[in-house]
Every structure is written in structure tokens, then in C-alpha cells.
Amino acid sequence: MKKLPDTITDKALRGIAVKVYEGTPVSAADARLLLAANSILDLGRISSHVRYRLHGDAAYYGVNMNLNFTNICELRCPLCAFSRCAGEAGAYLLTLGDIERRVKKAAADGVDEVHIVGGLNPELRLSYFEEMLRRVKKIKPGMFITAFTAVEIEYFAKNEGISVEETLRRLITAGLGAMPGGGAEI
Q: Rounded to whole angstroms, how far apart are CA atoms 31 and 149?
């Protein structure tokens, strides 16, 4: 088997691969180069080498579910085939009881993360989302919750007349663990 540096085709990354192979910490400049690199295969080889050194052949993964609490959305982005207006055929809003039942079933099936996103529904208050998160955590306290795009967070804050920071603080207190990266296209 070839040594890691010999498998790297990007010359700029080869020096970093040598450091990684030897166990030498990379510099801030190296980190910037890694972030700007276009060679996904070389980045994968470098990161796989580190993963193997730390964990051998063990692989770790999460089992998650996607929970879309509503498709009612006032934004109605032209590229979105998911959203509906209230009252339109196919429009829905899950009750907190519906959400609880879905999460209980998923938890029983081994799910350890729930990913929650939906539409910008003007009828929903921040208290709905706080209670949703609390109920998920009550069902399975270790459940990791990734929820609400940045667009949703800003919308919740505007609807409540509070800051984004206050909105995030309240959601984190209720159980939010992370936000997904979606919504950047809006």
C-alpha cells in the first residue's frame, strides 16, 4: 500500500499530507489551504487517514429522521415544489401530538437524531416550536435535534418581535442542538 503523501495528486496538499502522515499538527495557513482546496478526493484521502489512525476500521454514524411539521409557507419560492398556501390541496400542519407520535415511533426504531424543517407558516408562534423541541427531548432525552434553517429562525424572530439571538436562546433552552445549512438560496 502506498504511503498517504504518495496518493495525493494536488501538489499544494501533498506537503500537508506529509505532516498528517507524520502526526505533525497542521498550521493555520495549512488549514486555510485545506478549506480552499478543490480536490475533494485528496481531502478525503487525508481525512480518511486521520480517521483510520484514530479509530481503525470502526465507522460511526447517526440514524436520523426528517420531520417536516408543515408545508404551509408564505414565501412560496419559485424553486420549491414542497410549499402550499393554507387551504390549498395538499397543505398540512402537524399537531404537537402528531409530531410526538412520529418521534416516538422513530425513537423505538433506533433513531438518535431528528432533523426538523418546514414552511414559513404565519399561524405558528415560537411557543409551538419550543414545545415541539421539549416533547422530542422528553421522548428521548439523548435525541439530537437539528432544526430550523436560518430563514426560519429569522422569520420566527420577526413574527415574535424579538431578536434572532433571543429566538435562538429560547430554542436552545428547549432542546435545539444545531441548525441545518438549508435556506441559503433564499
A: 27
Over residues 42-62, the pLDDT tens digits come to 999 999 999 999 999 987 788
Instruction: From 89, 143, 140, select the one nearest 116 (Cα to Cα).
Output: 143
Q: How far is CA 169 from the centre of its chain?
A: 18
CATH of 64-174, one of 3.30.70, 3.30.750, 2.30.170, 3.30.30: 3.30.750
Q: In what order do the strands lie in the sheet with 144-147?
A: 64-68, 113-117, 144-147
Domain boundaries, the chain: 4-55, 64-174
User: How many Cα atoms are found within 13 Å in the side-chain-facing hemisphere of 34?
Assistant: 17
> Which whole-number Å values give the CA distances from 128 to 30, 92, 133, 134, in the listed order?
45, 15, 9, 10
**Helix, strand or coil for residue 13?**
helix
Q: Indicate whether this model's pTM tops 0.85.
A: no
